[in-house]
Amino acid sequence: MNWLGWRFLREIDKRQNDEMRQIILDTETTGLEPEKGHRIIEIGALEMADRQLTGRQFHCYLNPEREIDEGAMEVHGITLDFLKDKPRFIDISDDFLSFIEGAELVIHNAPFDIGFLDYELSMTGKSHVSLFESSQVLDTLELAKDIHPGQRNNLDALCKRYEVDNSSRTLHGALLDAEILADVYLAMTGGQVDLGLSLEHASENEDPFVGFGEAAERTLKVIRANEEELAQHRERLAAIKEASGDCLWLSQEEETV
């Protein structure tokens, strides 16, 4: 992992210590460009609190009142005939905004979905600001690129990398993709939760400290870093300090010099 990916995870870890409400969100559309009048036809959103899905969700299909590009239909399989009796975005916009209010939006390739949502909101005729301004947004695609630079980081690739089951994903669907993204996001940002040192798993009759004294008495071989490794270490700490404005390890080393 490069230092930027480390910084992302440090920020996520800091936020995980606070109570947080997140919305895992995905959309399906009639095409790729809202600037050309393309519209949203499905919204899928799941609520997560303290990294646990709450069971609350927002899901709807929408009548786009326009044709669907053939290429888009091949991706999600949703037809205009299926959507003709569905509500328009303006009909559900208040409920949608109420559902996401105050939450961090977790989206894979956020500019795409936010661009469409902003366009749809502008079409309602109601006053609004971009969701990038009114909401906190975490783009999991950018996060994945920083953690895994130079690798494929689409949702299918991340499912394979983090062993998330996406076998039911023969076609794209907003709610299904949101469910998969929730699993990928938790796997990508979870890290190692249990280091095997927890005492709460010990039985009532078992002394959790048995063997600790024996381990302490063993002679351990110490391998010290050479000058080249120390130089690389200092260079990495300096890069972290430059990027984040502070580096605790570097500060401690400077104090001891």
Description:
- The chain is an alpha/beta fold.
- It folds into two domains: 3-190, Nucleotidyltransferase, domain 5; 225-257.
- It is 47% helix and 14% strand.
- The chain contains twelve helices and five strands.
- It has helices at residues 3-16, 70-76, 80-83, 89-100, 110-123, 131-134, 140-147, 155-161, 174-190, 212-217, 227-244, 248-256; strands at residues 21-29, 40-49, 52-61, 104-107, 136-139.
- The chain has a five-stranded mixed beta sheet with strand order 3-2-1-4-5.
- Strand 2 and strand 3 form a beta hairpin.
- Helix 1 (3-16) crosses helix 7.
- The longest helix has 18 residues, at 227-244.
- It is elongated and about 70 Å long.
- The chain starts with a helix and ends with a helix.
- Mean pLDDT is 83; it is low at 191-206 and 208-216.
